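Sorry, can you check?
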Amino acid sequence: MPDGSKTQVIKVLGAIDEINAADWNACAGNDDPFVSHAFLSAMEQSGSVGADAGWLPQHLVLEDENATPLAVVPLYLKNNSYGEYVFDWGWADAYHRAGGRYYPKLQAAVPFTPVTGRRLLVRQDLNPEKQRALQTTMIAGLVQLAQRLEVSSFHMTFASKAEWQLCGELGMLQRTDRQFHWLNDGFSSFDGFLAALSSRKRKMIRKERRAVDQHDVSIRSLSGSEIETRHWDAFYRFYRDTSDKKWGQAYLNRDFFSRLGETMANNVLLIMAEQDGQLVGGALNLIGGNTLYGRYWGCLENFKFLHFEVCYYRAIDFAIETGLKRVEAGAQGGHKLQRGYLPHPTYSAHWIADPGFRDAVARFLREETEAVHEEIDSLSDHSPFKRS
């Protein structure tokens, strides 16, 4: 234990189901659906995550003297860099050319999910000082595990800013990137949001929404028991179609979506488009404590502006109606900016075993970080909102 008064033990689990769901969730909390036991279990039980997928579970659990979990970390041993969205392919290639072996590596993350959240999951009923002490212990445990497994590196991706800062204080390398998020500034309606935009952007969005109405496509937002098997069947077709076109492979299988519907239906928001009785497109969102997380989108036909309507505008509608504070619309997409989604930094931290390689990566990160900050500043200058 950090104060040395009691015994604590760190265990490595080969599957999320080796820990009781209630114990895991006592550490994960209720605000972030992606680190919930149900979500991570759906990944593993469906086979979307595992050795064959290059994500071998190695979850860390810190227990007290009574074998009560105090902290947990979703952790994976990886033999590739697929499905991470914090790109280190260049690092792997450079280390390989220098005669090193980059894979396997350890990754504290949610597979295939570029969503910011806590990674050092400490029981929420503990005071802040105790939580920080446990997080420090877990970081030390993660580094020790990396050394014991003789991996090249350990990475914590899409971490919270507080965790990122703590990792930096403890000597890990810090990396920054950016995403586009929509913030609810107390809007009472979509029109209230539009009123905060410049006239040109307001007209653009209204024009796009009118164009979607002309497609004779009906759009429904579904959650909980409203989501039927036929909706999941259709959405999986949309997901596969988009994956095949953009990435060449689908990380998630059909069974994952079934399990998601069975165990987390109330956290799911499916926005589905239908024409002439046929489901033609849709977007999957997950509902958190104060955030709506946009995840996947697909459409079998080309309906102009339908993507913006289903993925962005309906998400804003839902956030306003339910009082959510934020919409995170996933990775990439500079086109989100003019639709009210502003640039926000994302954070990752990295421990590298080889001192020479670590120094090289540190130099790269200094230059990259400066470029990211400059990009965020530049993008912010093009905000669609009215100037104060």
User: Anything to note?
Assistant: The first helix runs from residue 21 to 28. The chain has a mean pLDDT of 95. The chain has two domains: 9-178+344-380, 185-324. DSSP finds eleven helices and 15 strands in the chain.
